[in-house]
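Quick question, first post here. What does this chain look like in 3D?
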Amino acid sequence: MPADTPLSRRRALKTLFCSSAALALNVRREAKAQVEVSPESLQFLAIGDYGTGGADQRRVAAAMKGFVEKNAIRPNGLLMVGDNFYSEDKEGFSTESSRWKNQIEDMYPPDAFACPMWPVLGNHDYHDNYKGEKVQLAYGQKPGVRWTMPGKWFRVDLGSQPLVTFLFLDSNYRSVSGGFKRPSFSTGFRFRSLKEDEEEEQHEWFKAELEKPRAPFTVVVSHHPLYSNGEHGDSRTLIKEWGGLLQKHQVHAYICGHDHDMQHLEIEGKFTSFVLSGGGGAKTRGPTDNRNVPFYKETYGFSHLSVTPEALKISHYDDFGNPLHGFQKNLDGSVVLPT
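> Answer (accepted):
Ran it through. Tokens below.
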């Protein structure tokens, strides 16, 4: 294989996650912890690549509902990690579309999820419906809805102290998801994405928010991964734009989707843990990289986050609510994996 192929460049970044590298990754193993819910903890569920309206999305949503009921969890929020709506709405996608009721409000019912939904935009949210990203922003302005989207990028601090700062970003850079015309759609529009001035504005906002006082734990939520063992692989653009900021400001976790699988990556020398939760309902896809990681599985599923003053715990579950993988991220950046 030529030295400068995209795959070789991705593999040049790979982590050897094995016993010889465990110390460098600041990782240790302990007995698997059970789901813990305490008065001082915050609870979140994350789901990405889900907006099909099909049987797979319904099954994952039912597993999420069963999970919170079984564990007596009252979530503080749902992290909607992009590709919130797939396919063109033949009736015209608007804030009055029936898809909001069928694929959002009823799919994740308020009796189980009486909390805000914090969404980020995925590539399909820009591409599949003309100005679909504007519709999603507008829907969040309707009174009484849980869909909470004050902008394409925004910040949420939670907990009395607070405990965690979430920074929600739009990863649809022009070089990531913009581009050519898609003639199969009746509108014939070009792939939409962030505009140049939006890229610059968001980048300056992101830097400024990281420099402000933050909670003990910081989590960034976006759609596209920096690092991934899935079909799309690593994003050179996002590594360049955001990788240094995540490291400099010691962001504890980066949560995304885009690849239709469930992953947990620890990259040697990086403070941040990288988590992919892309099994929310769209057809799953297999891996294309041989990087050795703590966890990868091509499966439908969702993720659970628990935040206490001492630790951030993140776990993956499949579409029947069975546990797949979990880890603990400590304040100092160290990671505890189950034995």
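The mean pLDDT is 89.
The longest strand covers residues 311-318.
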